[in-house]
């Protein structure tokens, strides 16, 4: 840790990881309800469990982004964070809002648009926290060195805040409601979040491979250009069946098919940088998560997204388990792996020690990556069967669901494995130990010292 | 790597191109908004009851089990066309009554089945919800879903 104020990130990462634990726990329960459907049906119905699962995910990912920003901006800007007091105040607002929302959900206090179920006071709290954050980091960047990484990161973070404002607009017309609801949901995850993702990956590559900044930043701009060129009009793939004009079927199909390009570019980028690396960085676990992030985002977001994005296909698959399959691997690959990568990279620096527990950490990567892939396969199979029975043959929804039981049982099994992987990960970053489970071989000579 | 393509060229393409696509996207959304209000959702009037019904829908987080126009959770049936599935195109009053009595009959309590909670809605809330689902079923959705099963 070169700058004292980077320490703020530690608190953000800790809260993010706590919510990660809540997210996977709620996910496991939801998966169990699919297997034994009347579980807790009065005390904690499925809609509440799902709300906890999705909302905890979104908030912990955002907290991870904030933590990552507080960690990397001082190093990039070569200056301390403008105000740590504001940074902690922002965290307190977010924690109070999140706890308020979670406890409220248990007592059926919520709004009712998917992913935006937070009560109005929580939404306003998020806006205030975002304003504090943007002020704090923007002032920091302006007083220090400007780099492409901070430029893109800030643009992404500003975009997150600006597009969140559409969450406050809820018209009576369901079609119009959906039109702008996607301004938050799609433009976040397939637009501005990708800017944050590319910036953080670029920072990790810069630190861990030692390749020239000039090369890395050129890649960064090329990747984020692909993201927004495809992702903005790619929103059209959500406008096929909600009452929007028919031209979206062409606009959406063409541009959202191209959304695979930024993900493929991120795979090329991370692997090319590692190939051309000029140093051997000691934190192999962070490198594994970074490469895994690019690869799994490419499969989950890119391939699984493309699979059902053409309007002729989407006509049959829209709103089935195929969507759920894509959603799970895309979020895990792109954003969960990204956060776990930066956390794995930053924790040793924040704690002032050499990288630790790498073997356990890497095992947790393979368990989670394998289990999430398995979950995606089972949901994809469930979705294909569902599409055929329900959308082609016209059988009733519940009649079809009964025939998917085997897939849901397998999905629950993979959910158990994900939770085991998550526990191993939490242990490996939160409980530093002196020695690795397996000793390392002799160090390869490094071209230049690692940082 | 392709040296003529410099970092500042990449940056300028990124900022310029993104702005262009953002403007195009904004323009198309504005047109879509107009199209929705005047055409695709205009066949049935958006009454006070429909608006209140949408709030009932939201207050009870229906979307975290069901889908509506294909969006939501995938735990319970699609409701964008439930009004048609209940025969509302031929007998609207009958379909509204079926929706109401379905809501009142929950949960079924059948062991091992997915259970819909009892939301204890008032008669007026049930009427509003039925009005909302009736209005939604009349949106021109480009022919989706493929069949009445949703």
TrEMBL record, chain A:
SUPFAM superfamilies: Cytochrome c oxidase subunit I-like (SSF81442). The keyword Chaperone does not apply. It is found in: Cell membrane. The keyword Cell inner membrane does not apply. Heterodimer of cytochromes b (large subunit) and c (small subunit). Belongs to the heme-copper respiratory oxidase family. This is Nitric oxide reductase subunit B. It comes from Prosthecodimorpha hirschii.
Automatic annotation (TrEMBL), chain B:
The chain crosses the membrane at residues 12-30. Residues 48-137 form the Cytochrome c domain. The keyword Iron applies. SUPFAM superfamilies: Cytochrome c. Signal peptide: none annotated. GO terms for molecular function: electron transfer activity; heme binding; metal ion binding. It comes from the Bacteria. InterPro entries: Cyt_c-like_dom, Cyt_c-like_dom_sf. Keywords: Heme, Iron, Membrane, Metal-binding, Transmembrane, Transmembrane helix. This is Cytochrome C. It comes from Prosthecodimorpha hirschii.
């Amino acid at each position: 840790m070169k700058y004292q104020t980077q320490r703020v990130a530690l608190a953000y990462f800790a809260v993010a990881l706590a919510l990660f634990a809540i997210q996977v726990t709620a996910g496991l329960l939801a998966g169990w309800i699919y297997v034994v459907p009347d579980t807790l049906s009065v005390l904690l119905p499925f809609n509440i469990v799902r709300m906890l699962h999705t909302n905890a995910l979104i908030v912990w990912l955002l907290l991870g982004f904030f933590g990552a920003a507080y960690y990397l901006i001082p190093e990039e800007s070569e200056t301390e964070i403008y105000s740590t007091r504001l940074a902690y105040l922002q965290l307190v607002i977010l924690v109070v809002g999140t706890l308020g929302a979670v406890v409220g959900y248990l007592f059926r206090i919520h709004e009712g648009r998917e992913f935006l179920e937070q009560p109005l006071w929580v939404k306003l709290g998020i806006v205030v926290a975002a304003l504090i954050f943007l002020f704090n980091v923007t002032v920091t960047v302006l007083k220090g060195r400007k780099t492409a990484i901070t430029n893109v990161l800030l643009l992404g973070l500003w975009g997150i805040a600006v597009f969140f404002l559409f969450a406050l607009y809820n018209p009576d017309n369901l079609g119009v409601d959906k039109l702008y609801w996607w301004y938050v949901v799609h433009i976040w995850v397939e637009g501005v979040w990708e800017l944050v993702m590319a910036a953080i990956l670029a920072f990790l590559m810069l630190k861990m491979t030692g390749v020239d900044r000039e090369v890395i930043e050129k890649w960064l701009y090329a990747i984020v250009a692909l993201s927004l060129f495809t992702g903005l009009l790619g929103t059209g793939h959500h406008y096929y069946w909600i009452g929007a004009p028919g031209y979206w079927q062409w606009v959406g199909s063409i541009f959202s098919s191209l959304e695979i390009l930024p993900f493929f570019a991120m795979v090329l980028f991370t692997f090319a940088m590692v190939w051309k690396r000029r140093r051997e960085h000691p934190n192999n676990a962070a490198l594994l998560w970074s490469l895994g992030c690019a690869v799994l985002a490419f499969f989950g977001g890119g391939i699984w997204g493309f699979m059902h994005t053409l309007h002729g296909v989407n006509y049959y698959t829209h709103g089935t388990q195929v969507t759920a399959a894509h959603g799970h691997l895309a979020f895990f690959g792109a954003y969960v792996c990204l956060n776990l990568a930066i956390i794995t990279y930053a924790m040793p620096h924040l704690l002032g020690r050499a990288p630790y527990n790498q073997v356990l950490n890497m095992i947790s990567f393979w368990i989670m990556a394998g289990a999430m892939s398995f979950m995606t396969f089972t949901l994809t199979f469930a979705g294909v069967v569902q599409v055929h029975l329900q959308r082609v043959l016209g059988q009733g929804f519940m009649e079809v669901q009964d025939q998917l039981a085997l897939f849901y049982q397998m999905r629950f099994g993979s959910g158990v494995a994900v939770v085991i992987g998550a526990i191993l990960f939490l242990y490996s970053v939160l409980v530093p130990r002196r020695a690795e489970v397996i000793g390392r071989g002799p160090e390869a000579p490094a071209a230049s010292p690692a940082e | 790597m392709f040296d003529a393509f410099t970092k500042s060229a990449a940056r300028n393409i990124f900022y310029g191109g993104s702005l262009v696509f953002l403007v195009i996207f904004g323009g198309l959304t504005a047109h879509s908004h107009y199209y929705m209000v005047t055409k695709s959702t205009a066949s049935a009037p958006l009454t006070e009851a429909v608006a209140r019904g949408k709030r009932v829908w939201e207050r009870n987080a229906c979307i975290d089990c069901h889908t509506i126009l294909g969006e939501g959770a995938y735990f319970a049936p699609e409701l964008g066309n439930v009004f048609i599935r209940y025969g509302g195109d031929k007998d609207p009053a009958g379909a509204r009554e079926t929706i109401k009595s379905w809501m009142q009959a929950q949960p079924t309590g059948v062991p091992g089945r997915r259970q819909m909670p009892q939301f204890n809605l008032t008669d007026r809330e049930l009427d509003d919800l039925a009005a909302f689902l009736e209005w939604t079923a009349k949106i021109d959705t480009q022919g989706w879903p493929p069949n009445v099963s949703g």
